[in-house]
Amino acid sequence: MKAFLKSALISALFASACVQAQTVKIVGLVELTGTGATSGTNFDNGMKLAVKEINAAGGILGRKIDYSSSDTQSNPGVAKGLAEKAADDGAYVVMGPVFSGSILVSMAATRRAEIPNFTGGEAAAITQQGNPYVFRTSFTQSTAMPKIAGYIKDTVKAKVVDVIYVNNDFGKGGRDLINKALEARGIKVGADVSTEPGQVDFSSAVIKVKQSGGDAVFVYSNEEESARLLRELKKQGYNKPVIGETVLTSQKVIELAGEAANGAVAHVGLTADAPQASVKKFDEAYQREFKSRTDHNGLKGYIGIYTVKAVTEKIGKFDSKAFAAAMKNISLSAKTTPGLLLDLSYDANGDLDRESYMTKVVGGKQVVTDILPPVNKK
């Protein structure tokens, strides 16, 4: 009997090892609850859709993707613990967190384990620390803010701009860079208003902006807070340009803000409303799978997984260190890997470059008004 049990145990362990050898482990650290739930859920869904498609087509180098996601609860401390667990579990690549405050804390664990780590975080500080294993699925703030400041100067022709931002790593980083970019173009910053994550009442913030008398307001916050702020701006009769970056014209903000979102303008790195056929195809597939539309985070998660596929196939093996090295100054083609949706490139710091968009909310829908070329396009 003992011999039989021993033999059965050995067989089970062997079978488990064989299954692991036939798969590649990718772990998602995502905000499924808390203030980042909208962003994290969309990011997670985008990854799940990409994994489903890739596995149906045979996987990566013949291996199916074994994807699992864990909830960071929008808490940096929880994110750090989950990153350490992902490293202990032998993850090939870690995806997330999305929030800048969480990735800034958790990426030390993946760096120690020499595991490539993709993030949706936009804070400039993420890729300014010399971490060779961290890569963005979004534009860095230092890329996006000069584009917005140029739009404010050339199109809006504002002389004074008020700024309302959320008081966290994401918000403070964006505030510092938009202020710098505005001032570099001779635009004065008027009211400089800090708000809190999860804040409900924005009446005081709007009063400060109205009293400032600026020509426009730049809004930089999370989805729920941005929607509340838009409603308060409308309630108080604010009728000057409301400008943002990525979040302000996202699907969730439009749903939450309703008519108050109309007229808002934002630069976005990705949008499901982009006119390219590849993005439209993704949008249709996402809606079929999840019975809802996604914001930019779903696209970031989807493209992130296909980036893992493209780079792994480029190096021809599952080697985390070789993967990270190959990411430096790489250019990837959507023609070769359609799941990338758009051609993209990475620099030596892990920051990406690709086409982006100016958008406006019209009649309750995000409309692309212009396609901006990659920053480094010759």
Which keywords apply here?
378 residues, alpha/beta, seven-stranded mixed β-sheet, five-stranded parallel β-sheet, 12 helices, 15 strands, 45% helix
Could you walk me through the main structural features you see in this protein, from its secondary elements to its overall organization?
With about 375 residues, this protein is of the alpha/beta class. Helix content is about 45%, strand content about 20%. It contains twelve helices and 15 strands. The protein has helices at about 1-20, 35-55, 75-90, 100-110, 140-155, 170-185, 205-210, 225-235, 250-255, 275-290, 295-315, 320-325, and strands at about 25-30, 65-70, 95, 115-120, 135, 160-165, 190-195, 215-220, 240-245, 265-270, 330, 345, 350-355, 355-360, 365-370. The strands form three sheets. Strands 7-6-8-9-10-14-15 form a seven-stranded mixed beta sheet. A five-stranded parallel beta sheet has the order 2-1-3-4-5, with helices on both faces. A three-stranded antiparallel beta sheet has the order 11-12-13, covered by helices on one side. A hairpin with a 2-residue loop joins strand 14 and strand 15 (about 365-370). Helix 3 packs parallel to helix 4 (about 100-110) and helix 8 crosses helix 9. The longest helix has 20 residues, at about 1-20. The protein is globular and about 65 Å long. The model is unreliable at about 10-20 (pLDDT under 50).
